Structures are given as C-alpha cells and as structure tokens.
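S2.1 Query sequence (F-box domain-containing protein)
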Amino acid sequence: MEKSIASDPPTLCTLPLELREEILSHLLLPEHVYTSSSQAQKDQAQRLDTKKLETYVDSRIYIPTRLPANILQICRQLREDCIGFNTRLLNSPFSKAKPGPLLQAGGSWDRTLTKQEGDKDEIIEHHHDDNMVRITLEVDEAIVESLGSYIPERIEPSPHFLSLLPLLGRLRTIKFIVWAGFNWWGSQSDSTTPKLEEMLKRARIRRTFSDQDDQVAEPSVWKPATSTPSSTDITNHDSLSKALSTLLDHLPLVSEVQIDILLHATAYLNWDLPNTKWEYVKKWLDGPPAYNPVENRAVLEKVQRRLVTVALVGSSKVFSRVFLRQLEVRLPGREVVEVRRGVCDPFSGEEEGNDSDEENQGSANSTSKSRIHDIPEVSLTNTFHRPI
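Output structure tokens follow.
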C-alpha cells in the first residue's frame, strides 16, 4: 500500500517550466563566434595552393550566450525548452545574458576569438557588439593571392548559419556588420576591381594564326569591363542588398535590424572616393536595405544604418567614429517609412573632445575592451519619407 502511495522521484522534464529555466540559467556558456568559412587571409599573397576557397554570404556569427550542445540532444522537450529560453534572452532588450555561476566561479568567462588571438577584424567587430546576435558579411572584398586578386562569389549561406537556424529563426532583432570593398563604396568609379568572370573574359588571347577556323578567324577585340552600372543596377542589384536578402529570407521573424558598415581609416583617407564618402551608395541608403520581403518574411519595422570608420590602435584599442547614421521607422498603419539621417566629420575636433572627457572618468573606462556606447552618436537632422 505504501509503495502505491509513494510517487516516482521528479525528473527534469517533470519540473515546472520556471524551475527548468532556472536550472538552464546555471548552464549558460559564454559568448562565442562561429567562423563560417575556411579562414584564408585576404592579404596572404604568398598562398600557393590552387584549391578554390570556400566563401559564403556570412563570414562570422556572434552569439552572446548559448547552451551546451549535449543538452540539446537529450530529448525534444528539453531541446525546445533550451532554444526557447535562449531565444527569450536574446530577444529581450533588458536582458544581459551572462554565463552560469559554475562558469563564473571557474573563471572561464573569456572571449573566444575565431582565428588567432590577435585577429584585427574580430577585435574591431567586438567593439561594436551590444548583446545582440551579430552576423558579419564581406561584400565585394577581394582576396589577394600570389598571382593577383579577385572577388569571390558569395551566394549561399554558410553551413554554420543553416545549422543555427533553429535559434536564429526565432530572433526578432539582429545586427549585421559589413566589411565592404572598394567596388561597393565606389560602385560608379571607373577604377573598380573587376569580378573574376570579367577578368577571364578580358584575358582571352588574341588569335591571328593562319590555321584558325572560321569561328576564330577574326582577331578578338579587347573591351574594357563596364564597371559603371546603371541606376537600376545599383538600386535593384546591389551586392549588399543581395547578401542581406539572402540571410533575411531565412529569418522570418526579424523586424528590427541594425547595419554597421565598417571602413578602415586608411581606406577612408586614401581611397579615391569623393569628399562625401557615401555619395556612390546614396541610392542604397535612400531605398530599402534588402529586396522586397518574400511571403514568409516579416516587414522590417525599424532599421538603423551606420557608416563607421575604424582603426585598431596598438593591440586592442579601437578607434571608431560614425560619419553617417540613419534611422528608419515604419509609420503605424501605413506603407511608408520615416527616414531620419545625420552626417558628420569623423575626424573633427568635437568628437575628439568627447573621448577626452571619457578618459578623465577613470582608468576603468579606458580599458582595452571598449563598449559600443563609447562611440559618439550622430544627431539626426534630415528627415524624409519613402515607401516600403
């Protein structure tokens, strides 16, 4: 009789959801960066391997917090609880996810870099992290090899991105950091780097031998690559819009997007660009960030775009200045987006004064691990409307 009255001991899956999530909060792992492709240094000019590099739309994926993969493999209910708990942490604007107490006590709350400990791009990207999932894109970035440089095709999402879709597919806010090459910034310039297909077409040898057949009897005529696209191409076939649209098609719930386009300070000062650095990409700024959404994709309610010039000073200190900031908010009940834009000179003395005030607050604020809110914001002075 006593045996029938006695109940079975509770298991993790039989506990209330609040208790299960409290237990899961003790198992949170620290932030991590997933490298999406095989890392070939863009400046590795001595690379003699002729194997084609694997390139994808996304280069790196930063997750502020995550749960151990072995827990996700126990059962479906626990897997759903873990993904739902992690999603709520990432979607909440007030949640500052931290590793569990066990990891904090063990002192393992250290950042995991993707490649080597001194990766410059990853240090600069981490400077702009603000507890949001971040996806890094490389748009029209050339890869330098021993025989020259070329711009690879980045068409498909990476396997890491696809494997993280159970988590990423539930996000409502996401951040994109973009490293754009000269072809994107100077899309109307005559000195842009040709695509790989254009280079192959231009490299055909002029054949004038007597034994040629009728198909190649006429000598080939060299034609320069047309690097000046029409206004329609810039608006509808922009490489950044293609990349963003490819990823957003897999993120049906995303309604708020932040886009930071980073430009190295040396490129900002030395590239053959007009004084208004964003003049050639104004059509992209005036239009939607990506293609029109597909049926299963949510309409973007809020978009923030920033053009930022960056530099790594020393081994860990980051110089970062915004020279264009644009905030786009969809008006409720209307198919219209209100756009507010502000610009400034990133090397003006006014913003340098802001840095000096922060340095006087104490050595704690001048540590090598700077935060995103240390970057001076740009006031939004110009307002206009555009259709969705």
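The longest helix spans residues 76-91. DSSP finds 14 helices and eleven strands in the chain.
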